[in-house]
Design a protein that fits this description.
Elements lengths: L1 H7 L2 H4 L5 H30 L4 H9 L1 H29 L4 H27 L1
Helix pairs in contact: 3-5, 5-6
Length: about 120
Amino acid sequence: MVDSYLRERSSKDWKKSEKHGAGEWLAERWTSVALIVLTGWALWSAYGLMGQGYEAALAFVKAPVNAGLLALTFIITVWHTHMGLTANVLDYFPNSRALKLISALFCLVLLVAALGGIFLAFKA
């Protein structure tokens, strides 16, 4: 029964998502690799700041390179999170526009809060 179903499908059905998913798959992998490097930098930096207090942490964030790397870490993290949430929503609720919108809004709020915190610390 399964064999007859598979034989009846045309080659167009099989190649429907041939190029669609490849870009998303690569983006997920590249953001993962970037996050490994950036998370290592963040952990190393946090270890170096341990026990130095609020002023040292604020001075760390005020350095342009550190602020830029923190912002990049948050941007890539939120992008990676958005791709993962979208993939899960599409897997389990393929026709739910409301869940896609909620996940996009969640990621947008998360990004604005993170970048806003960096901006406020940089300006302080």
